[in-house]
From TrEMBL:
Known catalytic reactions: [thioredoxin]-dithiol + NADP(+) = [thioredoxin]-disulfide + NADPH + H(+)
Keywords on record: FAD, Flavoprotein, Oxidoreductase, Redox-active center
Alphabetized InterPro entries for the sequence: FAD/NAD-bd_sf, FAD/NAD-binding_dom, Ferredoxin-NADP_redctase_2, Thioredox_Rdtase
GO BP annotations, alphabetical order: removal of superoxide radicals
EC category: oxidoreductase
Necessary cofactors: FAD
Protein name: Thioredoxin reductase
Protein's organism: Echinicola pacifica
Enzyme Commission identifier(s): 1.8.1.9
Source organism, top-level taxon: Bacteria
Domain FAD/NAD(P)-binding: from-to ranges: 9-297
Encoding gene, per UniProt annotation: trxB1
Length: 314
């Protein structure tokens, strides 16, 4: 190690809505938190354009601007925001040991994990190019932009079915593109989409390319049985093939479900390790919204503050 270990009461890992909200509460409580931003300062919202469903912005706000506002608010109360990646942790004893960028050691009385989750993508060049310009991984977030229009959604699990049904309430038509001739989704969810007249399911269908220069104008699909290639006119393209929580570095210590989402005690953000709390998408595979991430970020700061008071460390 290059430097002597630094000591902190509250260490926040991640700079999305959950991490910054935890930082606002912890710094206003006089706990002088350090927050590490990770590789995506501001989190997932920095790759989207308009956010219209976060309370307090009546005219909507651009995702990057909103996260800039979060950062400024956290810094205003004294949060030490640092660019760096937590690369390993040792939660085997208290206080907890956290290594940043493989070199700097931090000794933390409490750790708040707010490392979020990353959407899985198909991996097409056109998908990356048109991300935020008609391509989205979140129907609840972006479906409204395509009201009364035609969209396509890729995925065959419960979430894909739920998102397709959500889109069908807003859009005129929803194509559901499914690679195989069956779905992974539960029977009840399958029934919900197959019985919806606005949803057309295209089986054995692969996405070849998303079409459009400045915005999505269509999608080129291929039937992997017949080889037939054709273009569908769509304005929006949704990817619902799953999310990967960014929790791998904690897996030796923290209880997680089989998908890697951190398990928290009901009604709190406590993990199985005393003094380690988790908030936001890293522990939430159900809601995955900025406002719910912020809500649990607030909870984790309050949980950390109470823990420190109980331990007489604050
Ligand atoms: C394209 C898109 C559009 C969306 N639109 C909306 C919308 O309109 N409204 C809405 O409510 N929600 C929207 N969402 C969902 C919303 O972005 C997430 O629910 C929210 O960002 C989750 O917040 P979070 O703080 O838990 O995690 P994230 O925003 O995912 O942030 C995670 C943070 O952790 C950091 N990190 C990860 N690993 C490490 C590490 N090892 N060390 C340090 N830091 C680390 C990352 O750098 C990042 O800063 C959208 C999502 C996407 C992808």
């Amino acid at each position: 190690m290059n430097k002597e270990a630094e000591k902190v009461k509250v260490l926040i890992v991640g700079s999305g809505p959950a991490g910054y909200t935890a930082a606002i509460y912890a710094s206003r409580a006089g706990l002088s938190p350090i927050l590490y931003t990770g590789g995506q300062p501001g989190g997932q919202l920095t790759i989207t354009n308009d956010v219209e469903n976060y309370p307090g912005y009546p005219d909507g706000v651009m995702g990057p601007q909103m996260m800039e506002d979060f950062r400024k608010q956290a810094e205003r109360f004294g949060t030490d925001v640092r660019y760096g990646m937590v690369t390993s942790v040792d939660f085997s004893q208290r206080p907890h040991k956290v290594i940043v960028d493989d070199k700097d050691e931090i000794i933390a009385d409490t750790v708040i994990i707010s490392t979020g989750a990353s959407a899985k993508w198909l991996g097409l060049e056109s998908e990356t190019r048109l991300n935020g310009k008609g391509v989205s991984a979140c129907a609840v977030c972006d479906g409204f932009f395509f009201r009364k229009q035609t969209v396509a959604i890729v995925g065959a699990g419960d979430t894909a079915c739920e998102e397709a049904s959500y889109l069908a309430n807003i859009c005129d038509k929803v194509y559901m593109l499914i690679r195989k001739d069956e779905m992974r989704a539960s029977q009840i969810m399958q029934k919900r989409v197959t019985s919806n007249p606005k949803i057309e399911i295209l089986w054995n269908t692969e996405t070849e390319e998303i079409l459009g220069e400045e915005e999505v104008t269509g999608v080129r699909i291929k039937n992997n049985k017949s080889g037939e290639v054709r273009d569908l006119d769509v304005n929006g393209f949704f990817v619902a093939i799953g999310h990967q929580p960014n929790t791998q570095i904690f897996q030796d210590f923290i209880d997680m479900n089989e998908a890697g989402y951190i398990i928290t005690q009901p009604g709190s953000t406590k993990t199985n390790i005393e003094g380690v709390f988790a908030c936001g998408d890293a522990q939430d595979h159900v809601y995955r919204q900025a406002v719910t991430a912020a809500g649990t970020g607030c909870m984790s700061a309050l949980d950390a503050e109470r823990f420190l008071a109980e331990q007489e460390l604050s």
